[in-house]
Specification:
Length: about 325
């Protein structure tokens, strides 16, 4: 088990020294607790795996006498288990077996639900024939998504106000539209050009996002309009432009990149948290409408909640976040 340590130069002030030592102790304790919980979770995962309790129950109840006579060690184990097992261990193992089966059934039901209750994938998906739209695809998570889709043969239309990086410009599967997604008119104009030059997209990835650091009472109205426009209101613009064709074909996938901030309001970033909570509500509500209003079970919706990721948006606080939480580095190669 390895623990992180924080090296600091202690100043002469005694109270500050104590504070720094306390911080270092808290970081170390957090690492110990995290490692311990991971170990416990690993043991629990093995214990509730149906094969473990089922194997022990089967061994006690149905071990062939011939096999036990051939292997004295197994015979002794069988005698030990049968002598004490009925009273002490049979019920706990039965509970573990039932819990393990229920866990796997729950996972299977979750996968089934995420596939809109279809047992198989939609028969019409062919990577080389698909067209994707990715907002904010010029850097960070969006760029990684663009590269990943292009590697599969998907033609990708990037909507961004940032200039397209050289490696994406060199990729023949990637096309670029400079577009301010806070403007429904700009999104509509870009969508018209995409349909005319590439065709109707079957994949939409709402990835674009911005964040600012300020308290609620210090929030600039223009910043507030922009963050809601990029992170939340643009979702309606892309949906109106691209989902109608998906409904007609009963085929499509809308991916919304939200954040762990969807579930927790961040001090000095309350507006960001509000937009991401709204993005989660948007995705869940859209999924219900697609299924029950438009009866288009072939359209999938996905909402993603990344933790801290090393992008341009987190660059200003990268060092502090890295020390406190750790940063996920996006592979955009």
């Amino acid at each position: 088990m390895r623990y992180k340590t924080m090296r600091v130069r202690l100043p002469r002030n005694g109270s500050v020294c104590k504070d720094l030592l306390l911080i270092e102790l808290l970081i170390t304790m957090t690492d110990i607790i995290s490692s311990t919980l991971k170990t416990i979770n690993g043991i629990a995962a093995v214990a509730v795996h149906p094969l473990v309790p089922a194997s022990l129950l089967t061994f006690v109840a149905y071990s062939p006498p011939d096999m036990l006579r051939r292997f004295p060690s197994l015979n002794r184990l069988h005698q030990l288990l049968t002598a004490n097992f009925v009273v002490r261990y049979r019920l706990p193992l039965q509970i573990l077996l039932v819990a393990g089966i229920a866990r796997y059934l729950n996972r299977a039901a979750n996968r089934w639900a995420l596939n809109n209750w279809r047992l198989t994938s939609h028969p019409g998906w062919r990577w080389a024939n698909e067209i994707a739209v990715v907002t904010g695809g010029c850097n960070g998570i969006g760029k990684a998504i663009v590269i990943g889709l292009a590697q599969k043969g998907v033609t990708v239309a990037v909507l961004d106000i940032q200039p397209m990086p050289a490696d994406l410009r060199a990729n023949q599967k990637v096309k670029y539209w400079k577009c301010d997604i806070t403007s429904p008119e700009a999104v509509s104009a870009s969508a018209t050009e995409i349909r005319a030059s590439l065709g109707n997209p079957s994949i939409v990835v709402n990835n674009a996002g911005v964040a600012y650091t300020h308290s609620v009472i210090e929030t600039d109205p223009e910043d507030l309009r922009r963050i809601f426009g990029v992170n939340l209101l643009s979702l309606w613009s892309t949906a109106k432009e691209f989902i109608p064709d998906m409904i007609m074909k009963n085929k499509g996938h809308i991916v919304t990149v939200a954040s762990m901030a969807s579930y927790s309001a961040l001090p000095t970033a309350v507006d960001y948290s509000a937009t991401k909570a709204g993005a989660l509500a948007f995705s869940e509500g859209l999924s219900c409408e697609i299924k029950h209003v438009y009866k288009a079970s072939g359209i999938l919706t996905t909402v993603v909640h990344p933790m801290w990721v090393k992008t341009n948006m987190t660059a200003a606080h990268a060092e502090r976040v890295e020390q406190s939480y750790g940063l996920v580095e996006v592979d955009s190669s």
